[in-house]
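Posting this for the archive.
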Amino acid sequence: MGKIIAMANQKGGVGKTTTSINLAAGLAYLKKKVLLVDLDPQSNSTQGIGARNDVKHSTYDLLLTKCEATDCIIDLKIPPMHLIGATIDLAGSDLEMANYQEGRERLLKNKLDKIKSEYDYIIIDCPPSLGLLNTNALTAADSVIIPVQCEYYALEGLTQLLSTIRLVQKMYNPHLYIEGVVLTMYDGRTKLSIEVQQEVRKYFKERVYKSYIPRNVRLSEAPSYGKSIFEHDLKSDGAKAYASLAKEVISKNN
C-alpha cells in the first residue's frame, strides 16, 4: 500500500515546492513509484518540473469534476515519476467547495484512495494557506512533512499549522501524523542558521530529519529550467541534500 505525504506550511517561501519536487524526484531515482500532486493554484510544482504545457486535466478537475486521478496523471519520464498538475483554475476552488453541503473535505481523498496502491509515495504540494485545499490534502494524507526555513520567525505560524493538523485529526483523519520536519535554506556559516536549527530540533525533537537543505544557487535556478536538481546539477550540494533526505524518508518507512 502506498503512502500519501502532504508537504505543508502555510507560510510562503519556506522551500515547500522545491522540497516537493526534489524529494519526489529523489524517491523516483531510488526506484520508488512516485506521484506528485500539485495542489497550489500558483502551479509552481507543475512549472518547476517543466510540465506546464502538458496539463490536460488538472487538480481542479480532480477535485471538482467527474475526472478520476487516472485521467489527470502525466507520465514525466525525466524524472521517472508521475504528476497531477495544477492550473490557475484552482484559485477559485475554495469558494466552490464551500458551497458543498457535505463531503467537501474528502474530495481529494476519495479520488486518491483509488490509485494509492499503485504508488510507493504520493507527495502533495499544498498551497501556502489554511483553507479547504489544505484540509483536503491533510484529510487525504497519511502524514505531513513540514519544511521550516532557517531564518528569523522560522517557528512563527507553525502553531497555527499544528492546530489545523490537530483539528483534521479530530474531525476527518485520526491517523494523520507528522512524518518529519525538514530544515531548508540552511547556511552553516551564519549564527542564525545554527540557532534556528537548535530551536527547531528542541521543539520537534527526533521528528527533525538529520538531512537539511542548504542555501544553494543551483537549487534556486533549477525550476526556471523546468528541472529537478538531479537533472540540473547532480553534483551540487542541493542534489546531495535531497538525495540524502529521500534515503532518510525511505529508511523511516521501512
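The first strand starts at residue 3 and ends at 7. The CA atoms of residues 110 and 159 lie 28 Å apart.
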